[in-house]
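Sample intake sheet
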Amino acid sequence: MAHLLIVEDELEIAGYLRRGLVLEGFSVEIAADGAAAIAAARDRAPDLVVLDVMLPGIDGLEVARRLRAASDVPIIMLTARDSVPDRVAGLEAGADDYLIKPFAFEELLARIRVQLRRRQREENPAMLRYGPLTMDTAAHETVIGERRVELTAKEYELLELFMRHPQQVLTREVIYDRVWGYDFGGESNIIEVYIRYLRQKLEARNEPRLIHTVRGVGYILREDA
């Protein structure tokens, strides 16, 4: 669930936005002024900020500058001012998008979703590379060296988990949770079976082993020196 910070001093508008966004499945926090917004963002990092320009105390432009200095959180600015210099000022302060009041809730919702999708793409790149391995998550293709590797859906999902966390030991519990989504119980050997399948396919032409067992803990994607 994405956590949104709404910075709006008009209580009626803030309440309207909170109700609508909560119904759309978001977690929403309201800040009524600039100082409260900065404190809220520090206490719990939001996934996106909807920020009014006209605020008591620290104005929205300064809030945007401070938020941008601290993180790359997406910022959508709200303003009643429609002039080009005002829009430019907002973008230069660090805003990712700009919406003029009054606006339709559906338009704000669409812009929020666009910004969240964009950030997710940036945080989860389509091309994953580690050593001789390359995964194109958009095309669902895996290559080791120059050789294409055909994987089942579950094998692919397991390898992608390793590719997103290279050189990190992944425990059996983490793998169960991320790949299968439920607990098979301590006696299940499903992970061992799929690790064996992956090794057979990745080492089919005597390639060096990449997925190693850490006894009593789990597995790690690592190139041996």
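Comment: The chain has a mean pLDDT of 90. The radius of gyration is 23 Å.
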